[in-house]
Specification:
Layout (H helix, E strand, L loop, with lengths): L14 H24 L9 E3 L5 E3 L19 E4 L4 H13 L3 E4 L10 H4 L5 E3 L8 H5 L9 H11 L3 H4 L3 E4 L15 E4 L12 H14 L10 E4 L2 H11 L4 E2 L21 E4 L9 H9 L10 E2 L1 H5 L4 H4 L5 E3 L7 H8 L4 E4 L1 H7 L42 H8 L3 H4 L4 E3 L2 H10 L2 H29 L10 H9 L8
Parallel strand pairs: 3-4, 3-6, 4-5, 6-7, 7-8, 8-9, 10-11, 10-12, 12-13, 13-14
Antiparallel strand pairs: 1-2
Helix pairs in contact: 9-16
Length: 494
């Protein structure tokens, strides 16, 4: 018996009325679904836009940001890392953990990290040394410029080929040094090359340099004989550097600190001191210039007090830094986790303009050879520019040799790429801009940008995770592994 809905005053539901009611319900559902879809921000297939002034823009500022929790990650994979740098160890591990992935930290620093309590107590983070003693190759690689020989890779493979923890690994990632990922090439697992400094760290001879380039190029080629690999870059500078030597278009996965430092501190501007970076330097040589410029400023300009964080706090936290209205940064490198963390908590920054940074002759931790990195390597031993790269200068030309090359390449540094970082052309210009900047507005703009960056990173990492094939078997025989996976009799030049 059909159920008929009727009231004393209502007409009966004829077929025509039922059809009309069905159309109304259908239209309402379409409107509701459309409204829901408009509230979600989806990154397009080509989210990176390079503007005329060479700034990488992420996403679309006119769209609302999709909340990170709304990005489902279907796979639960295990990632292995032996990185040396504290920032890299905290950064990618916290991001992957946020995406419900398991991270196995297998570096010789073990649990030592400035953010150990904040990050290393998170679920799904495993320390390899607590399961089994680390391989001697890991223990001996205590510096970013340590070379990796064929014997090292064989020894590493032999140690872990039957290891149950290694068997659970689905992918490796390497940032500092990225070249250590060559140790993982016999394991039949996905590799994510993700340099947060030049990808060539640790390869200080012409043969090693060229062999590493070949390995990245092979990793970028899909093959039925090996798993999917990924060549990425932690900054725009390294993205272009990879392009220069390899011809590859690396995936842009910017270092970010957004999954352990985001909203850690409240921006109060309660401290009067203007911080100067690098924050861990006790006596900045630039103090005298800033103080003199402040002293000679017009009487209506406030007199500023400058200090580094270590002078004020000795050991300091991001919460303490957030009490300061601004940081004046004199950078030593093109990418720094100190700058990344300041951006993540939304502390406004001032950086010398490119012309002024040339005058100051800073940012020396950039090229090869360097007094602290591959000092024995000569410029003429470096490989030539790849034909697919159209950069007009070598990235490894010293500014003492070609200042135009320096000015060209330095524009790719993080602090010239990230929006809302302010620049100054002289010490006097700095004082005037400090006096006239709305720091709260700049902070708010930076935090909006951080939301976009979080959404972008979640989307990009989700795409990578979906392409990784889990549960691949570790080959037991080293020679057979490198022959099958890479078509080689040996991997290393040494």
């Amino acid at each position: 018996m059909a159920l008929v809905l009727r009231s004393a005053s209502s007409p009966s539901f004829s077929p025509r009325n039922l059809l009309f009611l069905f159309l109304i319900i259908l239209i309402a559902l379409v409107i509701i679904l459309y409204s829901i879809s408009k509230r979600h921000f989806t990154i397009t297939a080509s989210p990176i836009e390079v503007s005329a002034d060479n700034v990488v823009k992420i996403g679309d500022s006119d769209n609302k940001i999709k909340a990170a929790s709304e990005m489902p990650v279907k796979k639960d994979l295990a990632f292995w890392s032996s990185d040396l740098h504290d920032g890299c160890r905290a950064d990618t591990a916290s991001l992957l953990q946020y995406l419900n992935q398991t991270v196995i930290l297998a570096g010789q620093k073990r649990r030592a990290n400035p953010y150990a309590k904040l990050i290393f107590t998170l679920p799904n983070i495993i320390f390899a040394h607590e399961k089994r003693a680390l391989a001697s190759v890991i223990e001996s690689h205590i510096a970013h410029s340590t070379s990796l020989s064929e014997a090292d890779i064989k020894s590493f493979h032999s140690y872990y080929a039957l290891d149950p923890l290694m068997a659970s690994v689905d992918a490796f990632y390497c940032s500092f040094p990225a070249s250590f990922c060559e140790a993982y090439m016999p394991f039949n697992k996905s590799i994510i090359w993700l340099p947060a400094h030049r990808f060539t760290l640790g390869r200080c001879s012409k043969k090693e340099f060229k062999r590493l380039i070949t390995h990245l190029q092979l990793s970028a080629q899909d093959s039925p004989n090996r798993p999917k690999h990924f060549v990425a870059a932690g900054g725009r500078y390294d993205l272009e550097y990879i392009k220069y030597y390899t011809g590859l278009d690396a995936i842009f996965l910017p270092v970010n600190s957004l999954f352990y430092a985001y909203n850690v501190g409240k921006f109060t501007q309660s401290r009067a001191e203007i911080l100067v970076g690098p924050l861990r330097v006790r006596d900045s040589p630039w103090f005298v210039h800033m103080r003199n410029a402040s002293a000679r400023a017009p009487s209506n300009i406030p007199k500023f007090v400058f200090s580094t964080a270590i002078l004020l706090y000795d050991f300091y936290s991001l919460e303490q830094l957030s009490a300061h209205r601004v940081v004046v940064v004199l950078p030593y490198a093109v990418l720094s986790y100190g700058i990344t963390e300041l951006y993540t908590v939304g502390i406004p920054m001032f950086i010398p303009s490119i012309e002024f940074i040339v005058q100051l002759a800073i940012v020396r931790d950039r090229i090869l050879p360097h007094k602290d990195i591959c000092a024995q390597l000569k410029f003429e031993h470096l490989p030539p520019q790849h034909p697919k790269s159209n950069h007009p200068y070598s990235p490894d030309l010293s500014p003492d040799v070609d200042i135009e090359a320096f000015k060209y390449w330095i524009k790719f540094a993080d602090y010239y790429q990230l929006p809302y970082i302010q620049t100054f052309d002289s010490w006097d210009d700095l004082i005037m801009k400090l006096a006239n900047t709305n720091f709260q507005l700049v902070h708010d703009q930076m935090m909006t940008e951080n939301e976009k960056r979080r959404s972008y990173l979640i989307a990009e990492w989700t795409k990578i995770i979906e392409k990784i094939e889990p549960n691949r078997i570790v080959p037991k025989d080293y020679q057979q592994a490198i022959a099958t996976l890479w078509g080689k009799k040996r991997l290393q030049a040494l």
